[in-house]
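Weekend entry, working from home. Most of the wet-lab plans are on hold until the incubator is repaired, so I used the time to fold the two sequences that have been sitting in the queue since the last round of cloning. Logging both here for the record. First:
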Amino acid sequence: MKTYKPFLWLFLLIALVISCQKERSFESGGKGTPSDGSLQSGTTGDCLGSIINGVYKKDTVLNSTDYVDVVVDVNVPGSFVISTDTINNFYFRATGNFPTAGTDTVRLQGIGKPTAAGTNVFTVTYDSTQCTFSITTLAGGGGTAVFTLAGAPGNCTPGTVSGAYTVGTALNSADSVVIQVNVTTVGTYSIGTSTLNGMTFSAAGTFSATGTQSVTLKGTGTPTSAGSFNFPVSAGSSNCSFSVTVTTGSTDYFPRTTNSNWTYQFDNNPTDTVRRYVIAATKSALGNTYNIFLENSGTGPDSSGYYRKTTSGDYYQYLDVGNFFGLANAVWGEFIFLKDYVPASTTWTSNTFTGTYTDSTGSYPISVRFKTDVEQKDVSVTVQGVTYPNTIVIKEQYEYSFDGGITWAISDVYSIYSFARGVGMIKFEPVDSMGTIYLQELKRYQVF
């Protein structure tokens, strides 16, 4: 069984102007003094908080239900024109006036008739800023699929929620819900929820086979309030629902909240994964209280470590250091694996742990310790196609001494960890003595 240390994040970004956010849709041109502001965009240029509505089919003229909402930070009120480029014979546009400064939502109406099926990436332009969103155009032929929702009329099956939902933080590609449907007639489909608490979930595509099919509903928008929200899904005469929990967030790079869970993929193999999760029980040791993490790689639950955090931002792991270093005896203790308040290039070493090392020549007293370097601080790191901002990258090395700590040697084995704020560990790269990397990457997560 493969194991590792986890590190997680929960992002706090409370928008002070949420209570006065507005949604605008304009058909007439803006007049008067031009406004000044910017489109809200992520580190990869995607339009933050955007909500895409409608069904887009080849050779079908767009109508009033085909639109995209984008979020704008208005610095100076006045007239505006916000539009996209023309892709695949259709585009989106809105004009009007911002009466006040602040955060505003603008509805861009879709115009045109797609001429080909496929994914279309649109660039939105306002003032001197740009952001992007993508829309999938379905094949026009073949008719519309007929299907029912699994779990109807109760909870959607399986209703697996992925991602972290935080007040004021725009949803990204990691925020999604998996449901199943029973297809009786193949064809195109569009499944979506209404907008609830600033969020919506939707998917569109083509069912090419009958029977049970899984559909991933992608989340868009920005949550405005904390709590549990029940999203109804409708398809024909069947209805089901799923629940999404929104939190106020935290600044932890390693969340330890009960029921939070993460799934990691090994060495780019989608069938080789492990799920790690936090249980309600805690462990007391050394006068401290640690949160307990478990993991399951398909063979049943096993311990994944004990962790705590100080108010200053020191993250500790309590573990059997003897087992970790391959010593002959158990040596329990704790060490700081992460400091979230120090700049890049900061280095620290743990306390010294003593035990016995045994090989074919005999047994010897040994001292061991951890050495940690902050290689990057608050950078953006992309894992499995998802970009995580505010990430700390550290290098963990392992030192040993056979003369009571007078001289130290560094093992050829080391580890690189990436921890994203509000999410936790997003990548783990242990390197063996031959330089081989055993990659573990975050595939999905849910932080409570």
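Second, folded right after the first finished:
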Amino acid sequence: MVRFVVKFGGSNLKSAADIRRSTEVVRAYGCPVVVVVSAFAGITDRLIHAIGEVTLALSSIDAVIEALRRIHGDALIAHVTDAERRAAVLDVIEERLSGLDRLLRGVHYIGSAPDFVSDAVLACGERLSAPVIAAALIDLGIDAVEALPEDIGLLTDGVHGNATALTGASSAAVSAALGGDRTRVVPGFYGVGKDGKTTLFGRGGSDYTAAVIARCVGAASLDLWKDVDGFLSCDPRIASDSRTIPYLTYEEAAELSYFGAKIFHPRTVEPLEGDAIPVRVMNVTRFAGAIEPYTTVGPPLGEAAIDPRVIKSVASTDEVAVVRLEGPVVGSRPGILARATSRLDAAGVNISSVITAQTSINLIFRSQDLPRALAALQADATPGVLTVVPIEDVALVAAVGEGIRDRFGVAGRLMMAVASEGVNVLMMQAGASPTAVYLIVHRDDRERTARAIHDAV
């Protein structure tokens, strides 16, 4: 049977009304689907905070457990009318809360949370929401059952905090486990290493979970239910006339996600592109009984389908920082960049991008990684590097569209639009991607730059 994989994020699970609407969406498919769920809204942040709290105060554990018990218990009362079924799910929740209690007590007594413990704690949000959603679906007359990643064989490379699914090794087991005529509810965000330990796919990783499952089961599509009208031409808070983009290629969507459009996880398209499985982005707040995508993401449709404006969307973020390695020959002296990247790799720091010149190498990171990146790069002197300079007050603005690298005049039009607003461009990268050009500007100029590019195209 051809299956749809349907994913609901925490923003769809804020209230009793949100949960009811999400279950009504599942019923509207009219066939068994695989449902991937995030934790209820705010739960992951609560668990992150709890890890920090319990290192200082053992008493904080009881408050965390009681809050989670109340939130999920209230959801059961609101959506599950059968007392026996409700009691059975409450038993599951209590068992998982007991496991969380033990993990948090361990964190307290050792005074820190090792990576494998942190992953196990943070995955509890999804492990608590999934049985509630499965029970709510049953209450609507849908034959549904929970399916945990560890039970269906969703294997990862074992990297804690930012794991990669082993799709090839998982496909047969996942496909077999999710086959048949029942709707399965899978907690997102995590898989298991070959050692059986929980490993997270990174923040927002439930989208990636759903994509991996869609690949394993050969889904007709991956349907992501969000609370926005798909991908837009710009953040509507910046450009009030932003418009929905009906179709994006995998590469366009990946670049937009990478550069700050928070529609789905940047790695979502990775498992899907090889099998041309489309991603359909829906708006759950506009659900009126029909399954209607706002944006579809899929393979390129050919030269004739390229938007005449070329630039389809503008994304931006101020969650970036730069470290500049300066010296008269850094761009031509062998080994300088290699040494820098090796140090950063050892420190667990990801480089978002690199812009080089003869006298400087500019390494771009997420702003939260700047302290670790700077410490790694300043730990030992590198021959040829005279200074290591952090640059924090910056933002990144990206223009994305298929053909942007190959169409005459696009980059020039972009730069003229920015110049007309009096914005100083600190750095520019063009040509590295066939679908994206990005600028580094002062943080205060981010919105003005994005709006200028959007208005010009």
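Plan for Monday: verify the second prediction. The chain has two domains: 4-228+263-299, 313-456.
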